[in-house]
Automatic annotation (TrEMBL):
Family the entry assigns: Belongs to the PlsY family.
Source organism: Enhygromyxa salina
Keywords tagged on the record: Acyltransferase, Cell membrane, Lipid biosynthesis, Lipid metabolism, Membrane, Phospholipid biosynthesis, Phospholipid metabolism, Transferase, Transmembrane, Transmembrane helix
Pfam family, one: G3P_acyltransf
GO biological process entries: phospholipid biosynthetic process
Top-level taxon of the source organism: Bacteria
Protein encoded by which gene: plsY
Self-association and partners: Probably interacts with PlsX.
Name of the protein this chain belongs to: Glycerol-3-phosphate acyltransferase
Length: 208
């Protein structure tokens, strides 16, 4: 791994690690870490500050990952091993958001940043994931389910699209795994609620 690539990765990590949700929240007098889910991402920002500010946090989270990746794609992509180098820069950007040095490595879940990365690297996969996300949230009313489904859609579409280099497919799979891991508390909560609902139904059946 060359010094040039390491510098690109470091720059992507530091740029994408900027906690824009926290910055926007503080400008509004809200510390996102102390409200709602405690997450600094767009979903918690939307709940705490409303649709307009939540949308702003989402756009900034997308941009802070997309910009360094787009720059890497332009400067590193045409070179030998370009896709692998760009994928590593993209991974560094996501890790910057999820584990930011500015917040003692306690950041967001990486959904918006992953969308920003693949908006640059695999636009068809990214745009289709947004459609699936919106549809899933409309059906389930649960943002986490939409995020998890969208992450899997990016992997599948990137895999079947012959124009997407293999390093980007591997990156998509790695990011999907990371996003699912970051949503593990949400999954555990959903399963707990499902078990409670089944227990209540069983109790009602016994009482009838």
């Amino acid at each position: 791994m060359s010094l040039e690539l390491l510098l690109w990765m470091l720059a992507a990590y530091l740029i994408a690690g900027i906690p824009v949700g926290l910055v926007v929240g503080r400008a509004r007098g809200v510390d996102l870490r102390e409200v709602g889910s405690g997450n600094i991402g767009a979903t918690n920002a939307l709940r705490a500050m409303g649709k307009a500010w939540g949308a702003l946090v989402f756009v900034l989270d997308v941009a802070k990952a997309a910009v360094p990746v787009a720059a890497a794609l332009h400067y590193l992509g045409p070179n030998p091993g370009g896709p692998t180098k760009v994928a590593l820069v993209a991974l560094a950007a996501i890790l910057g958001h999820v584990f930011p040095i500015y917040l003692r490595f306690r950041g967001g879940k990486g959904v918006a940043c992953a969308f920003g990365v693949f908006l640059v690297l695999a636009p068809k996969a990214a745009l289709l994931s947004v459609i699936v996300y919106a549809q899933t949230v409309w059906l389930t009313r649960v943002s986490a389910v939409g995020s998890l489904t969208a992450a899997l859609v990016i992997v599948v579409v990137a895999w079947v699209d012959p124009s997407v280099p293999l390093p980007y497919v591997i990156l998509a799979a790695a990011l999907a795994g990371l996003i699912w891991e970051r949503h593990r508390p949400n999954l555990e909560q959903m399963f707990a609620h499902a078990r409670e609902a089944r227990a209540r139904e069983a109790k009602l059946d016994r009482n009838e």
